[in-house]
Amino acid sequence: MVSSDFRPGSPSWIGLGSPDLAESGLFYGSVFGWELGPPGPDGYGFFRSAGRTVAGVGPLTEAEPMPAWTVHFAAADAAAVAAAVGRSGGTVRVGPGEVPGRGRTAQLTDPTGGRFAVREAPGPEAAPGGQGGQGGQGGPGVLCWAELHTSDVPGALRFYRGLFGWRSRDSDVPGVEYTVLRPADGGEEFGGVAGVHPRVDVGWLVHFAVADALLATDEVRRLGGSVLVPPEQVPTVGRIAVLADPFGAQFALLEPEPRR
Fold first, then answer.
1. Quick one: angle between helices 78-87 and 153-164, nearest 10?
2. Are 217 and 33 in contact (CB under 8 A)?
3. Can you list the alpha helix ranges (DSSP code H) found in 33-130?
């Protein structure tokens, strides 16, 4: 489960690039119950749920030409991470820069084509989400897992371990080749790495917790989204579905298996 603490190397923020913020607000508001606040001068807005900031949304940019969710990983020094990406065969799409209220960020791509970002913590006076970005963890409609789909699992693991020092282990789900990730300091497991899926884009796939994946999938379909992978039960994990919003941005739903 993703932590709300600002731990270097763990997901600290997620942002959606959208061609129509109002329509995206209506879609995700209906699926997750989110509320979209008025965009700022830069056109960037915040999704909130039950009083917590859960994500951001902004207009498409040259560096992000396709609608997509981007995972931002916490970094003590965004410039140092960006430099390491360049040395390791990745790409710096947007160099480190200050984003008012959201800290210093850089937009990057790993050597296998997976897009991601890094983010230094803003000061405590910054806005929605505070230092950790997202306001709290757990509960429906909140980021609960980040999953990388790549054509080179060993290569991707070497790359990200070099950047963030991630710890990893093999999944204990029978018959599944999957690597589970946690921060270098041994915090909560936050995501995993898997091979290429025929219906899922290469790169990072955000997972949102839901109380009922079947009902949420039906709502996505009703609102004009696409069902890429119908809800499936994964032993010891829960029910998972992979979807796309009406503009094509992919995301997943996770209905966690009840704890015993």
1. 140
2. no
3. 78-87
CB-count exposure of residue 78 (10 Å: 0-12, 13-18, 19+)? buried
What DSSP element (H or E) covers 12?
Answer: strand 11-18
Neighbours of 18 (CB within 10 A): 24
3-state secondary structure of 217: helix
pLDDT tens-digit series, residues 114-158: 999 999 976 443 333 333 344 445 578 999 999 999 999 999 999
CB-based burial, 45-63: b 16+ in 10 Å, e otherwise: bbbbbeebbbbbbbeeeee
93: left (phi over 0), alpha (psi -120 to 50) or beta: alpha
Nearest to 54 by CA among 26, 35, 74, 76: 35
Q: Which helix (H) or strand (E) holds 206?
A: strand 203-209
Helix (H) or strand (E) holding 21: helix 21-32
Rounded to 5°, angle at Cα 194 from 82 and 119: 25
Q: Position 188: which residue type?
A: E
First to last CA, the chain: 16
Determine the Cα–Cα distance for residues 32 and 210; give it in Å rounded to an integer: 8
What is this structure's pTM? 0.91
